[in-house]
Amino acid sequence: MPFTAKVYRCSNRTACVRADLLILLFFTIGLAFVGTSLYLYLSHQSLMKNGVATTGTVIDLIQTKRRSYTRAPAIQYTDASGQPKVYYHSVATNPPEYYVGQQVTLYYDRDHPDDIQIAGDNLMIYVMGGFGAVFLLISIWSVPGAIDSLWKWAFAAG
User: Fold this and answer.
1) Bridge-partner residues for 116, per DSSP?
2) CA distance 75 to 101
3) Alpha helix locations (H) across 13-142?
4) Domains of the chain: which residue ranges?
5) Contacts of 26 (CB under 8 A, 6+ apart)
6) Which residues pair with 53 in a beta bridge?
């Protein structure tokens, strides 16, 4: 006997419209997260390809919030002009991803020296992509039906 999925119909038209809008909202949020992840990945790759590579040393692990156990690295490096600089990474983790004295490769834009990436630091790309995937997986199979239902509701005669 072949498997057939049961189709549940809403008895309340307003509830159906709200459910369909929620499905489309989840789909849109998923696309936004995946799009942001793709943008971060492409900008990271562009900086690694076109930026200036330098080696830095983790000089400190900084507590980013007052009552938090997470630590972010402070990395000292020398720019192309020979000036020593310190980069304070914005992502803090527990346990710390880096240790004091560790050598790391940094890439920075010569025209915008504040645009810095640590080689191999893809945490935000994975987080954004993961959230996007979850939202898309929750909604993707229901999107065509939701669009059809909303179209019929919006342009129904009478």
Assistant:
1) 108
2) 9
3) 13-50, 123-139
4) 36-138
5) 135, 138, 139
6) 107
Nearest to 137 by CA among 25, 2, 26: 26
Structure token digits, residue 148:
């059809």
Residue 96 class from Cβ within 10 Å (0-12 exposed, 13-18 middle, 19+ buried)? middle
Strand pairing class (116-118; 71-78) = unpaired
What pLDDT, in 10s, does the model give residues 19-77? Answer: 888 889 999 999 999 999 999 999 999 999 998 999 999 999 988 778 878 889 999 99
pTM to 2 decimal places: 0.74
What does the alpha-carbon distance between residue 20 and residue 155 come to, in Å, rounded to a whole number? 15
CA distance linking residue 85 with residue 99, whole number of Å: 18
Return the SS3 of 55. Answer: strand
Do 34 and 82 contact (CB within 8 A), yes or no?
no
